[in-house]
Amino acid sequence: MRDVAALVRAELTKILTLRAVRLITGVILALHVLVQAQNVKAETEAVSRITADGMIERFPGVVRPAQETLVEYLATSSFQLCLFLPFVAAVIAGQEFRAGQLGTSLLAVPRRGLLIGAKTLATGGFLLSVAAVIAAISTAFMYATIKDWNPGLLVSSDAWTAQAKFLAHAVLSGLITFAVTLIARSTLAGVLVTVVLTALTMSQVLAVLAPALDALVPLSAGRNLILVPEEGLRLSAGPGHAMVVLVVWPLLTTVAAAIFLSRRDAR
């Protein structure tokens, strides 16, 4: 167990030394701050117009319970930026195939299954830390928005649950790209697969033609996990189904990555 922990720490240290990872992470966090800052005024005005019966109109003609709406907004404001986290995972995985670094790693850890497990845990830990910072930024801006109405909302059980759902999606979706990149041995391939899967959700093609298939797409599962169905918003599955999808995808792709790595050379 100590050997595994030491290996995970070593892999995490390797991740933290990657300049590209630090750069992309910094850009994501800076972009999140910029987007949140631009929305503060409009969201604060919407909160100031919350009715006596607790209803809010964030969008023209759409009136919903304020607490439910703001908790959902807390998670979705982070969810929008976590779309970029898989690209970080692709860079982390792709660096192993540059300049024969994978071969060097295998000299230190000949057991390839153990190496993949340690890399996956380290990558998951890094993605979790970045996602937690994104969630903290969202919380800070939300506080600025609702501090004169109900700041206690941010520490309510609903808020914690919403944040947990976001963190789960952020980590699990990133690990899918990480594993796919290991299988393909290419950062570009991992990015392209992620873009294709994202496009399937964003285009809404499957949601219209085959909702059951749409529910199996990782980004759609994240949406189904975090959003609350309402009039005008139909989800392709419930949160339980979404969580199963988000767990199965990285599990299967990681196992596949371990199998592929065990049957190939270390170049």
From TrEMBL:
Transmembrane regions listed in the UniProt entry: 20-37, 121-146, 166-184, 191-213, 242-261
Record key words, sorted: Membrane, Transmembrane, Transmembrane helix
Name listed for the protein in its UniProt record: ABC-2 family transporter protein
Annotated organism of origin: Planomonospora sphaerica
